[in-house]
Fold this sequence. Notes:
single chain; mainly alpha; 0% strand; globular
Amino acid sequence: MNITELFKDALTYPIQDWTKFFVLGVFFVVVSLSQILSPFRIVSNPIVNIICFILFVVVGLILLGYLLSVIKETISDPSAIIPNFDFVKNFISGIKVIIVAIIYMIIPVLITVILVAITGVFAFLSPLMVLYTQDSLMMAPALIGGAVVSIAIVAIIALIVFVIFGLLGIIGLAVLAETDSIGKAVNFVKVFKKIGEIGWANYILFLIVFVVIAIVISLISSMILKIFGIICGFAGPFAFVVIFIGIFIVTLIFDTFSNVFHSRAIGLIYNESKNN
């Protein structure tokens, strides 16, 4: 499957079953309940905040697990339609997704912390802060230069490390979907080899198009919210209702579409490893 066919499939996949699409959309609305209710004073109630937080965690994990099942179904049968919900299984899978995400995030964070220690960033910053409070910062050009060099080195290497683990993490998620194994999903060597089977050039091209489409969807969502914001200016006492409707529509439709599209696309690019 070439890139054009892959994204054509991924973009049409979410709307193959409108019933499941809107059921999934309701779950996204529930997860975003705090944001949707933000125009109303009800969210200032601590009890409401606690309820929203619990719903965010529980339903959020179910959604993560469900989106993982979209990847899984795509890998096992690319012709399959949007999968059914299995709330218990989705919830457990959601926890696994969080664990894998944390592992892929914590390693670059640790590497960054080690780099900060090795380059002595804090050793430069402490005296610089003292000089800043004394308005004597310009009296220590060597100190400033050393701090800039150290921070630049850490920033560049950290960026590279985060990008690498981000690239690995996407395919690691697909490995988790296929194998249901956290161990295999965080086996960086095998995940790296899997990307090699997909083809690095093919994978990078996929990511570029993937990001562009994600940005376009995000821009459309923002434009719709801005339109509702303009309408809000003429709505008078109903302004809060207009804002509520705008956020509700964007969450129900665009958040749902975007997330299902992402999962489908990841499953399809992962399948390329089987074709090469």
